[in-house]
Amino acid sequence: MSRKITKNTLSFILLTALIGFSQMGIAQERGAYNYSREYIWGISKNTNSGLIAGLAGKFSRTIGDNKFQSFGLEIVNVKHPKELRRVSRISGNTFLLGKTNYLFSIRPQYGREWVVFKKAPQQGVQVNAILAGGPTIGILMPYYIQFAENNNRVTTVPYDPETHRNSSSIVGSGPFLRGIGESKIRPGLNIKASLAFEFGTFKNDVTGFEAGFQLEGFTEEIEIVGGPGANNRQIFPSAFIMLFYGGRK
After folding, report:
1. How far apart are CA 113 and CA 131, in angstroms?
2. Tell me: the pLDDT tens digits for 114-145?
3. What is the pTM (predicted TM-score) of this model?
4. Do 137 and 24 fall into the same domain?
5. Do 103 and 207 belong together in one domain?
6. 128, 114 contact by CB (below 8 A)
């Protein structure tokens, strides 16, 4: 008997919840702000980056009820967990111990977005589910250091952990773009799944954040850190968050 009461009670709760959600959806639709285009840009951070990973921009347009297609571009700096920032004993400048290359990922992306919850014109939060992916253009640029030779002459050279084992002779990092002419292209693919939480006081404004997971793979192993036990990878999974701002109409 108690089991029957429990089942009946559960059925009543589920039915009430469904009716409540349907009424909430109807109320939202009545007061919702409909738009057909959205433009956003933002800054991102992920588990393969420093404080700021890079920049992103995206254009979305409607293709159905609460459904959008998007075209985006991300440019990020991918780091290795074994990069260690050190202070030179000679100059007090910093350098990255073990780092041999910068990896910059340029990610054109095509995606689909689904509105899970739509906010009213001047209040509330909108939640979008996002699935996107595309090719990756990886730019591998040599990391330069300033190194003091035995005759105390300082030279700017690509960092080689095997050749420059004596880290006490490293004066600091070389010019950031010194190795741009020696960069190599590494093609790959990327895919991400995320949720975007959009806020905004005015109906044409978009402010919020996107959080999710991304998987990026290249056609070969990418050397970011050199030396034994570097554990360089070909596949780069990461969790990310992006703060964005934009407009819609």
Report:
1. 7
2. 999 887 666 678 899 999 999 999 999 999 99
3. 0.81
4. no
5. yes
6. yes
